[in-house]
Amino acid sequence: MSKVHGLALGRGLRREVGQRVTLRTVATALGLSVTTVSRALKEGPEVNRETIELVKRVAGELGYRPNLGGINLRTGKTHAIGIVLPFGREGEMNIVVASLIEGASRYMKARGYRTTIVPQLQADDPLATVRDIVEEGSVDGIIITHTTPQDDRVKYLLEVGMPFVTFGRTELLSAHPSIDLDHEVIGAEAARLLLDAGHNMPLLIAPSRQFTYSLQFVRGWRRTFAERHLSVPDSLIHFTAVTPDNGREMAKRVAASHPEATAAFVASEEAALGFLAGLRDAGRQAGKDFALITYGGTALPDFFNPPLSAFYYSNHAIGERLAAFLHRAIAGENPAELREVVRAEFVDHHSQLRRA
């Protein structure tokens, strides 16, 4: 047993409540110098691996946290990132994105970064929200969601040189870090599934048309119809905010305007939850006289009544990937190397089938 290891086992690793744990606290507990502890926490080459692992373990047990104020002064870094989250409805928290936040913040915390959530309220200007964060100098990088084809926030961040990553793509010529789902493939596959199930003119209920991913859904949807030499009347493609309330109202509207409709792809699990309620309000019932497919980043559709077939991705995993890309962008990596398109998994509850 090494001398250091023996010392660690022989000391009580305790601290008074409210006492701040410093490098000296860790050094005293281990019988090492402050310099050795500091170098071990940085995994310096002059410290052996056994000591590095021991110091890290004991520092964790004692609750040691780096003095970010001092680090910030020395490096010019804040060791914080910001996640800008649009709030689509007043007074309600979007629980669907909670796992995305957890994934991103867990990844960054393991690397010494704090995560700040920046709400973008309904009345807020999206560009002004991002500009305020940059001008405050409170973060080293930003994650933004709900991209548009010519996103002004992305243009601004590229111009000022702030590291960032988007959940969603743009149609800008300048390469920028992004993680996205292949929404065009999803739209095409949803149309194929519903047409193959015998639904002659299924409906597409897409998110607001200002967002890039909504337009991608539509392109994929139209592509499947075109491949089968079928036309898609504009009246069978609808756009709505992705909330339960909007989904409910949309279901009642299409039930009245398209009584012959037997199926829809509702491209949001939150809107689909409301859509189920709206169908019941209109005297229709999913799983009996109406077929549905949805899309989202949680397992919520598994618990709907009836459970819905869904194109699924993990919001938690997306959050981790966004954070990983942002961490690399902060380190100065080439933005062209920080782009990824994720394939969704189809979870089949047979809710797309036509019932007799």
Automatic annotation (TrEMBL):
<dbReference type="Pfam" id="PF13377">
    <property type="entry name" value="Peripla_BP_3"/>
</dbReference>
<feature type="domain" description="HTH lacI-type">
    <location>
        <begin position="21"/>
        <end position="75"/>
    </location>
</feature>
<dbReference type="InterPro" id="IPR000843">
    <property type="entry name" value="HTH_LacI"/>
</dbReference>
<dbReference type="InterPro" id="IPR046335">
    <property type="entry name" value="LacI/GalR-like_sensor"/>
</dbReference>
<dbReference type="GO" id="GO:0003700">
    <property type="term" value="F:DNA-binding transcription factor activity"/>
</dbReference>
<dbReference type="InterPro" id="IPR028082">
    <property type="entry name" value="Peripla_BP_I"/>
</dbReference>
<dbReference type="InterPro" id="IPR010982">
    <property type="entry name" value="Lambda_DNA-bd_dom_sf"/>
</dbReference>
<keyword id="KW-0804">Transcription</keyword>
<keyword id="KW-0805">Transcription regulation</keyword>
<dbReference type="Pfam" id="PF00356">
    <property type="entry name" value="LacI"/>
</dbReference>
<keyword id="KW-0238">DNA-binding</keyword>
<protein>
    <submittedName>
        <fullName>Transcriptional regulator, LacI family</fullName>
    </submittedName>
</protein>
<dbReference type="GO" id="GO:0000976">
    <property type="term" value="F:transcription cis-regulatory region binding"/>
</dbReference>
